[in-house]
């Protein structure tokens, strides 16, 4: 497994909010290691036995936390992200609709501090063996040796549930986020799966918009020896229209599904025509 | 949120960038009046939000007020790429010595703002990137640092302009970046920036504010009557409506329809955590859209609960006047409850997305044209 493992001790920013409290409960039910929550002004209280602190610095004085999951609403998410980047090693930003200018600042700061940011606008990370830092339904995942990376939430669920039903478990599944500017792109995750002894095969799910898949193809060609199976959504999407995700838009000649599929095939990746082909391709490796 | 040229120019001017003086006309009579007041010749520019206005014949000139009347009439009768021209901007016709290109946008892969400028103005940047890529100067901004005027002058120098222009051109590049930064823009662009005897002037202006930042710019959104939407909806030209939860899954639903030989009529992403009412609204939208023959509803609930979806479906079908074939794929959170609700109402459903897509196309093909 990668990123989220036995050593991950996570705090929840925005634990007392509607989203934060609901998903903290879900994460606890899945036995995830949630050590604290942060809500300024509510320090000293607790949520279902999880202690709440006023700041991350206060949390660090009392626990050995090293990761954060952010549910803070978009207008305040930049502040929350900077606070966690300053103090921790891994930050998952679930929040949707963060202004892209804020995201650019967050990612520049994370790069300076050498901190891994996943998201924003992501379902998060799940390592079925140890827990989740995310909002995904857990019953469709199972423990195993396939690593999954995706730009899309529900499509990850689709693929994971098909894998699970076919008896193929997952080491870690990561949604990198559907926004135009995200913290961690495909190559960094691909490399982590390459280096992870618990991962034997990789599933990469892309979609129209930008050139992240083309860049991933180059990276796979040069650096990845484990078999990669891929699926790209949006073959039938028209140009110039934002297809749900802010990042899913064909602009000029950039972002077309065919170009992504071609680049991946050229890099030796098995490209599935439909999600169910992923299961077959994984089985046949 | 995109701005019309004349609105963008107002904001540019407010931020110290010189623009051509102009006025907006909604009728040929107004155009004639403005042309008389301003003095001819004038340029008449249709105000649309789509690109490619020049090529589409949306910019014309007039040598006297009568011609302005006639030309305005034609422009106001036009559609450019499907967008009706409702008003035109009338400006003095400038005496152009040189044309430059300046744009600031977001570079997704480097996660930074990027300034792109060229000594070759007036052409599309995509075109220039193919024909003369060496004539484009690119400069990334560190989002954590202030962009300083000397950097802008350096960009101007690298464009290859005459030394006498470096200060004024650098000044405009600096101001354009500040517009981009201040208004949380997706893109801020001047093409062309023209050199006249009066100096450097923005002859065109493009500004798009990034939608997720609009809460910080309420003063501007009121001007533009922008509405936030409940779901992501794109109309397509087929006859099978595709509805799904989540962008990736909805896109895949479309692809599966096509793979089976069908044609999607919509991309309709109900998003995460859609309520019963959202489902009903989404279905109503497609049920009342005449070209649609079959509806393919594809839900794998994560935050969205399958029982809410089932209830919404029943409410929409009950209230619909039109009888329509609907293929439902329903799994995920609370799937047993959701499936039971559909069963009790006698509505069939599928578990597999791919089977459901195939079935939707088969039903479409079985209908008599």
Automatic annotation (TrEMBL), chain A:
Q: Keyword check for Protein biosynthesis, yes or no.
A: no
SMART domains of this UniProt entry? CoA_binding (SM00881)
Q: Which UniProt keywords apply?
A: Ligase, Nucleotide-binding, Tricarboxylic acid cycle
Q: Please tell me where CoA binds in this chain.
A: 16-19, 42, 94-96
Question: What is catalyzed by this enzyme?
Answer: GTP + succinate + CoA = succinyl-CoA + GDP + phosphate; acetate + ATP + CoA = acetyl-CoA + ADP + phosphate; succinate + ATP + CoA = succinyl-CoA + ADP + phosphate
Could you mention a single GO BP entry for this protein? tricarboxylic acid cycle
Residues bound to substrate are: 157
EC number(s) on file: 6.2.1.5
Q: Which domain of life is it from?
A: Archaea
Catalytic residues as annotated in Swiss-Prot or TrEMBL: 245
Q: Name one GO cellular component term.
A: succinate-CoA ligase complex (ADP-forming)
What binding partners and quaternary form does the record give? Heterotetramer of two alpha and two beta subunits.
* HAMAP family for this protein: Succ_CoA_alpha
What is its biological role? Answer: Succinyl-CoA synthetase functions in the citric acid cycle (TCA), coupling the hydrolysis of succinyl-CoA to the synthesis of either ATP or GTP and thus represents the only step of substrate-level phosphorylation in the TCA. The alpha subunit of the enzyme binds the substrates coenzyme A and phosphate, while succinate binding and nucleotide specificity is provided by the beta subunit.
Protein name in the entry: Succinate--CoA ligase [ADP-forming] subunit alpha
UniProtKB/TrEMBL annotation, chain B:
What GO molecular function annotation could you give as one example from this UniProt entry?
ATP binding
Q: Name one GO biological process term.
A: succinyl-CoA metabolic process
Q: Name one Pfam family in it.
A: ATP-grasp_2
Which residue numbers delimit the ATP-grasp domain? 9-220
| EC number from the UniProt entry | 6.2.1.5
**Residues binding Mg(2+):** 191, 204
| UniProt keyword annotations, A-Z | ATP-binding, Ligase, Magnesium, Metal-binding, Nucleotide-binding, Tricarboxylic acid cycle
Q: Kindly list the GO CC terms recorded for this protein.
A: succinate-CoA ligase complex
Enzyme class, first EC level, given as a word = ligase
Task: Enumerate the Gene3D superfamilies for this protein.
Answer: ATP-grasp fold, A domain, ATP-grasp fold, B domain, Succinyl-CoA synthetase domains
Q: Which cofactor does it need?
A: Mg(2+)
Q: Where does ATP bind?
A: 45, 52-54, 91, 94, 99
Q: Which stretches are annotated as coiled coil?
A: none
**Pathway terms, separated by semicolons:** Carbohydrate metabolism; tricarboxylic acid cycle; succinate from succinyl-CoA (ligase route): step 1/1
Q: How does it assemble?
A: Heterotetramer of two alpha and two beta subunits.
Question: Which family is it part of?
Answer: Belongs to the succinate/malate CoA ligase beta subunit family.
HAMAP family, A to Z: Succ_CoA_beta
Q: What does this protein do?
A: Succinyl-CoA synthetase functions in the citric acid cycle (TCA), coupling the hydrolysis of succinyl-CoA to the synthesis of either ATP or GTP and thus represents the only step of substrate-level phosphorylation in the TCA. The beta subunit provides nucleotide specificity of the enzyme and binds the substrate succinate, while the binding sites for coenzyme A and phosphate are found in the alpha subunit.
Provide the protein name: Succinate--CoA ligase [ADP-forming] subunit beta
The source organism is Candidatus Methanobinarius endosymbioticus
């Amino acid at each position: 497994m990668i990123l989220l493992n036995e050593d991950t001790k996570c705090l929840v920013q925005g634990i007392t909010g509607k989203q934060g409290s609901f998903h903290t409960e879900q994460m606890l039910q899945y036995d995830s290691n949630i050590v604290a929550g942060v809500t300024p002004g509510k320090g000293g209280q607790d949520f279902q036995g999880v202690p709440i602190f006023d700041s991350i610095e206060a949390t660090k004085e009392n626990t050995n936390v090293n990761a954060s999951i952010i549910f803070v609403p978009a207008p305040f998410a930049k502040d929350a992200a900077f606070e966690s980047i300053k103090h921790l090693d891994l930050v998952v930003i679930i929040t949707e609709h963060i202004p892209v200018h804020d995201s650019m600042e967050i990612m520049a700061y994370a790069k300076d501090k050498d901190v891994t940011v996943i998201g924003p606008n992501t379902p998060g990370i799940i390592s079925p063996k140890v827990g989740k830092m995310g909002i995904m339904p857990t019953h469709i995942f199972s423990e195993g040796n396939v690593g999954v990376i995706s730009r899309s939430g529900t499509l990850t669920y689709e693929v994971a549930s098909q894998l699970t039903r076919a008896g193929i478990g997952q080491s870690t599944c990561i949604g990198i986020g559907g926004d135009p500017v995200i913290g961690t792109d495909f190559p960094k995750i691909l490399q982590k799966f390459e280096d992870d002894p618990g991962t034997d095969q990789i599933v990469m799910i892309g979609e129209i918009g930008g050139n992240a898949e083309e860049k991933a193809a180059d990276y796979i060609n040069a650096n990845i020896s484990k078999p990669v199976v891929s699926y790209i959504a949006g073959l039938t999407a028209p140009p110039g229209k934002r297809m749900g995700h802010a990042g899913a838009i064909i602009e000029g000649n950039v972002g077309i599904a065919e170009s992504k599929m071609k680049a991946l095939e050229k890099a030796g990746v098995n490209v599935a025509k439909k999600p169910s082909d992923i299961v077959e391709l994984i089985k046949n490796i | 949120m995109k701005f019309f040229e004349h609105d963008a120019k107002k904001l540019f001017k407010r931020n110290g960038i010189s623009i051509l003086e102009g006025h907006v006309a909604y009728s040929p009579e107004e155009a004639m009046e403005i042309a008389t007041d301003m003095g001819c010749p004038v340029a008449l520019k249709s105000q649309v939000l789509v690109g490619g206005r020049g090529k589409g014949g949306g910019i014309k000139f007039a040598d006297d007020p009568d011609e302005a009347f006639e030309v305005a009439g034609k422009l106001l009768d036009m559609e450019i790429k499907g967008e009706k021209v409702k008003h035109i901007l009338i400006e003095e016709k400038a005496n152009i010595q040189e044309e430059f290109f300046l744009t600031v946008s977001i570079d997704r892969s480097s996660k930074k703002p990027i300034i792109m400028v060229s000594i070759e103005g007036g052409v599309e940047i995509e075109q220039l990137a193919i024909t003369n890529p060496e004539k484009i100067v690119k400069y990334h901004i560190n989002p954590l640092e202030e962009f300083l005027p000397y950097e802008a002058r350096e960009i101007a120098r690298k464009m290859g302009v005459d030394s006498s222009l470096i200060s004024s051109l650098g000044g405009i590049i600096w101001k354009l970046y500040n517009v981009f930064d201040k208004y949380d823009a997706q893109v801020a662009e001047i093409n062309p920036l023209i050199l006249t005897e009066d100096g450097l002037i923005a002859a065109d202006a493009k500004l798009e504010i990034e939608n997720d930042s609009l809460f910080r710019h309420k003063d501007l959104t009121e001007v533009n009557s922008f509405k936030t939407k409940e779901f992501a909806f794109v109309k397509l030209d087929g006859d099978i409506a595709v509805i799904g939860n989540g962008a990736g899954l909805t896109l895949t639903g479309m692809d599966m329809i096509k793979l089976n030989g069908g044609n999607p009529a919509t991309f309709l992403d109900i998003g995460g955590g859609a309520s019963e009412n959202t489902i009903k609204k989404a279905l109503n939208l497609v049920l009342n859209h005449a070209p649609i023959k079959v509806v393919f509803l594809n839900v794998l609930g994560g935050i969205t609960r399958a029982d809410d979806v089932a209830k919404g479906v029943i409410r929409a079908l009950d209230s619909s006047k039109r009888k329509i074939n609907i293929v439902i794929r329903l799994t995920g959170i609370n799937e047993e409850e959701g499936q039971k609700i559909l069963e009790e109402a006698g509505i069939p459903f599928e578990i597999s997305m791919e089977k459901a897509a195939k079935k939707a196309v088969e039903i479409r093909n079985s209908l008599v044209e």
